[in-house]
Amino acid sequence: MPPEGGTTNASLRKVSRMSITRRTFLEAAGVILAAGHRLRAEDGPPVSVAVIGTGARGSDLIRALTTIEDVELIGVCDDYPPHLEQGAKYAGPKAKTFADYRKLLDDLKPQAIAIAVPLHLHYQIASDCLAADCDVFLEKTMCYTIAEAQKLAQQVAASKRVFQVGLQRRANPIYRQAQAMVEAGMIGQVTSIKAQWHRNNSWRRPVPVPKTDANWATLEKRLNWRLYKAFSAGLMAELGSHQLDVVNWFLGTHPKRVFASGGIDYYRDGREVPDNICCLYEYERTPPQKPNKEAGAKPYTVRVNYTSLCNNAYEGAAELIMGTKGSLYLTSAKGLLFQEKGADTVNWGADKDRPEAEVNAAVVTAGKTLKLSNDPWAHRGTPIEIDIEEGNDTRDEMISFIDHVRRRDVKTIADTTVGLMDCATVLIANSAVEVGGWVEFPTLS
Ligand SMILES: NC(=O)c1ccc[n+]([C@@H]2O[C@H](COP(=O)([O-])OP(=O)(O)OC[C@H]3O[C@@H](n4cnc5c(N)ncnc54)[C@H](O)[C@@H]3O)[C@@H](O)[C@H]2O)c1
What we know:
Layout: E1 12-13, E2 16-17, H1 22-29, E3 47-52, H2 56-65, E4 71-77, H3 81-91, E5 96-98, H4 101-108, E6 112-115, H5 122-131, E7 135-139, H6 146-159, E8 163-166, H7 173-183, E9 190-198, H8 216-223, H9 234-251, E10 257-263, E11 276-285, E12 300-309, E13 317-323, E14 326-330, E15 335-339, E16 358-359, E17 362-363, H10 369-373, E18 384-385, H11 393-407, H12 416-435, E19 439-440
Parallel strand pairs: 3-4, 3-6, 4-5, 6-7, 7-8, 9-12
Antiparallel strand pairs: 1-17, 2-16, 9-13, 10-11, 10-19, 11-12, 13-14, 14-15, 15-18
Helix pairs in contact: 2-3, 2-11, 5-6, 6-12, 9-12
The structure holds nicotinamide-adenine-dinucleotide (NAD).
């Protein structure tokens, strides 16, 4: 993958210039630029919301919710006092605090709940909130097991409550635009996807008492729940779920099967989940009919290479969607389009602010051919950046959720269909690691 921003080669030559405006391009792609819209005062009183789990992510959600006018944050809950204190600080004095979420539900009867607790608790707490007639925003991954996610999906359907999984890329304007670009055929037939979440840290949180303290072991498990199988599904659920959701979304389907290998190869510190994993997914996809004529209607296989590491951050977190006419390199903060050299010129992307933008760059200096042919970045040309102001997709996803709550619209941006598919997609990779072979995508009811 390129360093964000693209080419390193000064001797690239422009062979075509983009000629239509960005506005025309966006309209052609039918792009919705913002996932959520500002709710208006005339839409009714604010939605009463409470947050369960006020650790790292719960605090993000609280901070986002307190910036949305149409939300009244009435309560926060955490059964670990230091985190509850932190949540209460972000939520402000009007929010009541609880150590027991059932008491919060009984006392406050909030209209909507945002849940950000460890994975093994997702099902039970979400199910209890639905039973208490709340609309539910549940952090990803939807559930700890596929069976739990299926049961929860059935409960949501029967309850008619609004439900959204915390897959915030679905609310991110960059991803929304990129998905529309793929759907419009702008990178041709998608043939391959590579995605990764690589970083260089142990994932381990410090424990605020000495090892000799009687509470150390309990506290260590509570704070480092991600590292233990009884509470966590590891890298795939914590990181891969975001990116495989992007893949499912962009390909419009779920994988057929996955092969994966992973292990604890570096951080041999008592953890139980892999510190590195490498997956090969196969998707069967029917090509879009329009405007991608050459694809035909026959299903074909898209192979998706997904890796996650805890000991090298070189590639960071990104997805590379590769098609016959171009590639999209996506992160939460930036989207880049690289047109394929020699592919039909799409001629889009330039506007009056970027008249010098260059596409389809080609190598012309003969003496440099050898050097350049060994340069893995030589064929990428000058990328076109998806030119959308960087936002806050956590806030955007909450705005979208609240908007759906207001309108009683159960078709949220990450409803149970999306959440269940994502959950199964990541959990079968863990099964593949365990069995050491291919695992088929299950039939989901
Ligand atoms: N969407 C995202 O970008 C994103 C980012 C980080 C985490 N997450 C998800 O959010 C969830 C929480 O992750 P985190 O990093 O905030 O973990 P965390 O450990 O920081 O916070 C979890 C909190 O839940 C509390 N908790 C546990 N049991 C509880 C109970 N019965 N009642 C009330 N509170 C309880 C814990 O005390 C803790 O404060 C996970 O599902 C994770 O995957 C999502």
